[in-house]
Specification:
Blueprint lengths: L1 E8 L3 H8 L12 E6 L7 E10 L2 E15 L2 E6 L10 E9 L15 E9 L5 H28 L2
Antiparallel strand pairs: 1-7, 2-3, 3-4, 4-5, 5-6, 6-7
């Protein structure tokens, strides 16, 4: 399963980065991420993440250990890396941030324009893929709206 979602905002690249480069911040805007706690004992930037969703009267949760494997200015990648010795489905979240023409790259910049955020989720699990995709899409739509509101508020604070 591969899902891509994006948004364009007047916020600077730095402002967008504050919401997407640390998984511990995701619960502020993505309701599917119930919790994300940094694992300071790991040598790599690692988070223990709990995804939680309700389907009718049922609630399901999934725990993942995600490692930030790429951390470049315009590209961040989080990948599942469990340490229990078992084989697990791949979860990979790729975050791409691109300033628009003349866009501000930091809060101190006065550039006008837009920043584009694109998030791609790859999951190669076999169980309940149709249900998972539907739940993800609902949460993505709500998360995009919430993140847009947070970024708009941040732009207003300049």
């Amino acid at each position: 399963m591969d899902i891509e979602a994006g948004l364009t905002t007047a916020a600077s690249v730095d402002a967008v980065l504050k919401y997407v480069d640390d998984l511990a911040v995701y619960p502020e805007w993505m309701s599917l991420v119930h919790s994300a706690t940094r694992d300071v004992s790991s040598p790599e930037p690692t988070w223990n993440v709990e995804l939680r969703a309700s389907v009718g009267p049922f609630a399901r949760s999934k725990r993942l250990r995600l490692v930030r494997t790429v951390n470049e200015r315009g590209r961040i990648v989080f990948e599942r890396r469990e340490i229990d010795g078992r084989t697990h489905a791949t979860w990979r979240l790729t975050v791409t941030i691109a300033p628009g023409l003349g866009a501000a790259t930091s809060r101190a910049d006065d550039g006008a324009g837009a920043t584009t955020l694109t998030m791609q989720l790859h999951y190669d699990g076999r169980f309940f893929v149709g249900v998972v995709e539907s739940i993800l899409q609902q949460n993505i739509d709500a998360g995009r709206k919430r993140l847009s509101e947070l970024l708009a508020r941040r732009c207003g604070d300049r």
